[in-house]
């Protein structure tokens, strides 16, 4: 008979405290007066969007087209790559909308190329059959308004994925389009992310940019020189007849390289002189913390004229405390970027700086690496922890 284990000694600290009355702290929801029409980022692109009835219609459509694709593949495997009717039937069933000549070349390779000893055409049949036989997965995708499509891989094999028949139904693409429509210097149909060169250069799709710096330098009442690191950009709609631009206004954007000491000291006074030259203006602060690492732009941001509708800040180190100047400032649009290292725990923003900001379109501009050497990277979108 095995000896029983000795009982665990009682720990005097292992005693619950006497029950105390919990006092809850409640907070009233505060209305910050933000623009409720600002685009809302989709949190779950897989969220159900179709009713049961509509999902079943799409499910049956997916099954029918998958089965048609399967039958076409079976005929092609039996008859070979020269069965053009089978090839056409599969392309039609898959909804492939790319170049037909390119597809035909890819199709021929499916009968000669192999992966782990399996011909690409046989592998494609397995993929189609697997999708066709997984009713739960098909129903899940149908509820999310997605149907099967084919993808041509880098090795010229073909696989199956699920996507939206109409790209405007894609919540991510729709959100991107909404962001570009809503921003101050917006455009109606764009959804591809701005490239770093355009962001750094202040280029906006649908807008003609003109450099007006010399006009302001020549006018002595503004008190700036060409050596002050202050530039003036004018933006006008490229196609003013487009209904989207009907209510869009011409705009001047005033740019400061914060590293330039003369411009840094003159900029607040300069903004106060130019603020009435046009109804709405924008401000761009570049090189914040680049060489003069302790040079703060708090005072500049705090002193921004009331008709500043868009502010863009390029931080070159992780000191973002100057953004606290935006607390209680209702601003239509804020963009935050860096050309430095984004993958660092040093980055953070006090959320009080952003509570009255309507819109931060630079959320779309995140990228880390992947560009040619020598190109400055826009590696940071929103820095909030």
UniProtKB/TrEMBL annotation:
One Pfam family hit: MIB_M1
InterPro entries: Mycoplas_M_dom, Predic_Ig_block
Superkingdom as given in the UniProt entry: Bacteria
Domain IgG-blocking virulence, chain residue ranges per copy: 173-369
Protein name: IgG-blocking virulence domain-containing protein
